[in-house]
């Protein structure tokens, strides 16, 4: 609907010699705080300076330029500096239902990507232990970004960067962990991490292992590879449990040789220098980092000449950017400064950098209070254990409520929704009981709303055309009645899914879709309580509306990686 309004306004603005694109105009269109002010509003404040007139007068003149409202609008009014658009409710209902009937799983999508390749890198857990709950945020956000990319016509390739040349793996090699199974890795890692922290001799041994690895020592390579393989397999299996998978595993060790080539290219820039310890570093004192860091330098090698992580990361990022210009990476907020350093280094080489989605941490509520997790200290709640606990809690809740449903699906929905409903840059205080509640702003509440809608269709004698959502009732098969307030509210919310999904895609912010899903479920439940469906005079229309709600919610949840349940 914003697109239709933008077209009207573009034509009117042209008469005022204001040349704005439809996308620019649409970005200004608002949803008013009350129905009395219309369904959409266009503010004219920003035009006052350009047109040397008062915003309220500009609104009046633009309204005059629009002329008689098209069929899709009941009225177009001005209120001070705003142009208010009142949608033709029956027309909106008819168009929305027919559009969903036609597009089904594609409702809300657009082929913006035109089948082009995109690269999304996410998760990248150190291959040293089973992942904890805090690490799940990277994977869940990344997976949702992938879903958005697919929804809008891209073909994303999902990459997982494996830090196999790391101090963490080297410590496990020193600890003889190559003989251990995956479930034993964490305890051994915590044990050796504490010892290394107290012993300079042991720390030197760790760095010696890294040096041997980079120099190609066969025995060392074999041990690193065995530990990495064991951990990566275990981590991937746990992530698959929550529906997250990868197309490509990129190993840091594969970029050791390429990193040497990057170092040579950086030498020609005049910004690569050596410190007193014979380490190569990149001087970034003349970049935006000057005011952010006490000493804006990016150290790239050790004193023995072996490369550090940033050098190999540069080589890896250059490789990714060659695969596709549409390139995204999900990183923790603790890497904001580092990513800017990486970006400046790439800029120095005349190269672009990926789009980045930074996320904040997950704090878990415990008896000791909210806390951040640390693998090194062993102060973690493992994702595998946490999922098991959530599933058990979900099972008990389902039993207590005498409802149906797969506890595992409910648990995963609770986890993913709790993560995704928060903007990535916000810290999450995770309370398992709260996340699993069937009431309020939770994943189970949304799933229950979907199942409730499905039960209506199953009970109706007229449900055959709508029960499987594959064939919705076409609007010509029934009359659209005079609409109640709750019906209008539900129709309007359903119709706004495409613009919500588009905004989430453009901003790489899945929380917009998550919050939309909850609000849609909430509005449906209000409709359910105030508008009887079965046996009412309006049954055919309301059945189609219920089915439209289900399809829209299913599409919305699919972007979050959340599976729906037919019964709960």
Q: Spatial order of the strands in the main sheet? A: 6-5-4-10-11
CATH architectural category of the largest domain: 3-Layer(aba) Sandwich
Q: State Rg.
A: 28 Å
Please give the domain count: 3
Q: Total number of helical segments?
A: 21
User: Could you give a short account of the major beta sheet?
Assistant: 5 strands, parallel
Terminal Cα span? 34 Å
What's the number of extended β-strand segments?
14
CATH class of the largest domain: Alpha Beta
Helical proportion, percent range = 40-55%
What form results from the Cα inertia axes?
globular
Could you explain how this protein is built, in words?
The chain is α/β, with parallel strands linked by helices and 568 residues long. The protein has three domains: 86 residues, Arginyl tRNA synthetase N-terminal domain (Gyrase A, domain 2), CATH 3.30.1360; 190 residues, 3-Layer(aba) Sandwich (Rossmann fold), CATH 3.40.50; 177 residues, Isoleucyl-tRNA Synthetase, Domain 1 (Orthogonal Bundle). 51% of the residues lie in helices and 12% in strands. The strands form four sheets. A five-stranded parallel beta sheet has the order 6-5-4-10-11, sandwiched between helices. A three-stranded antiparallel beta sheet has the order 1-3-2. It has a three-stranded antiparallel beta sheet with strand order 7-8-9, covered by helices on one side. α6 links the parallel β4 and β5. The longest helix is centred in the middle third of the chain and has 24 residues. The protein is globular and about 80 Å long. The two termini are 34 Å apart.
């Amino acid at each position: 609907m914003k697109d239709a309004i933008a077209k009207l306004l573009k034509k009117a603005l042209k008469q005022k010699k204001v040349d704005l694109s439809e996308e620019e105009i649409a970005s200004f269109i608002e949803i008013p705080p009350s129905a009395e002010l219309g369904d959409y509003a266009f503010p004219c404040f920003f035009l006052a300076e350009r047109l040397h007139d008062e915003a309220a007068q500009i609104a009046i003149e633009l309204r005059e330029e629009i002329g008689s409202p098209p069929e899709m609008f009941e009225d177009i009014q001005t209120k001070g500096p705003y142009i208010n658009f009142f949608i033709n409710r029956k027309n909106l209902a008819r168009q929305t239902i027919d559009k969903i009937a036609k597009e089904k799983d594609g409702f809300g999508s657009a082929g913006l990507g035109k089948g082009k390749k995109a690269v999304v890198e996410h998760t990248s857990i150190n291959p040293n232990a089973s992942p904890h709950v805090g690490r799940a945020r990277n994977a869940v956000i990344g997976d949702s970004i992938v879903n958005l990319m697919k929804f809008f016509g891209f073909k994303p390739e999902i990459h997982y960067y494996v830090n196999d040349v790391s101090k963490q793996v080297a410590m496990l090699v020193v600890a003889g962990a190559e003989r251990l199974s995956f479930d034993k890795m964490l305890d051994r890692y915590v044990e050796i991490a504490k010892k290394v922290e107290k012993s300079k001799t042991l720390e030197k041994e760790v760095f010696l292992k890294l040096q041997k690895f980079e120099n190609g020592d066969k025995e060392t390579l074999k041990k690193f590879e065995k530990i990495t393989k064991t951990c990566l397999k275990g981590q991937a299996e746990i992530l698959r449990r929550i529906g997250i998978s990868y197309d490509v595993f990129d190993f840091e060790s594969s970029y050791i040789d390429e990193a040497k080539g990057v170092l040579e290219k950086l030498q020609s820039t005049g910004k690569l220098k050596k410190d007193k310890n014979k380490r190569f570093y990149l001087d970034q004192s003349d970049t935006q980092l000057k005011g952010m860091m006490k000493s804006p330098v990016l150290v790239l090698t050790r004193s023995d000449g072996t490369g550090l992580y940033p050098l190999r990361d540069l080589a890896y990022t250059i490789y990714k950017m060659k695969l596709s210009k549409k390139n995204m990476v999900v990183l923790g907020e603790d890497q904001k400064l580092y990513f800017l350093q990486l970006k400046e280094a790439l800029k120095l080489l005349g190269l672009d950098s990926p789009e980045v989605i930074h996320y904040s941490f997950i704090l878990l509520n415990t008896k000791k209070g909210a806390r951040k997790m640390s693998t090194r200290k062993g102060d973690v709640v493992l994702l595998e254990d946490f999922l098991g606990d959530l599933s058990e809690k979900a099972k008990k809740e389902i039993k207590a409520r005498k409802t149906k449903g797969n506890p595992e699906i409910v648990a995963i929905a609770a986890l993913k929704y709790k993560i995704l409903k928060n903007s990535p840059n916000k810290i999450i205080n995770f309370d398992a009981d709260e996340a699993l509640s069937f009431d309020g702003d939770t994943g189970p509440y949304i799933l229950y709303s979907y199942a409730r809608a499905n039960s209506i269709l199953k009970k109706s004698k007229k449900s055959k055309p709508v029960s499987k959502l594959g064939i919705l009732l076409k609007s010509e098969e029934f009359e659209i009645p005079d609409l109640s307030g709750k019906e209008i509210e539900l129709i309007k919310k359903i119709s706004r899914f495409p613009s919500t999904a588009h905004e989430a895609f453009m901003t790489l912010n899945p929380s917009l879709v998550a919050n939309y899903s909850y609000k849609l479920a909430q509005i449906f439940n209000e409709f359910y309580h105030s508008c009887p469906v079965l046996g009412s005079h309006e049954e055919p229309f309301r059945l189609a509306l219920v089915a439209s709600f289900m399809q829209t919610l299913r599409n919305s949840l699919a972007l979050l990686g959340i599976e729906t349940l037919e019964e709960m």
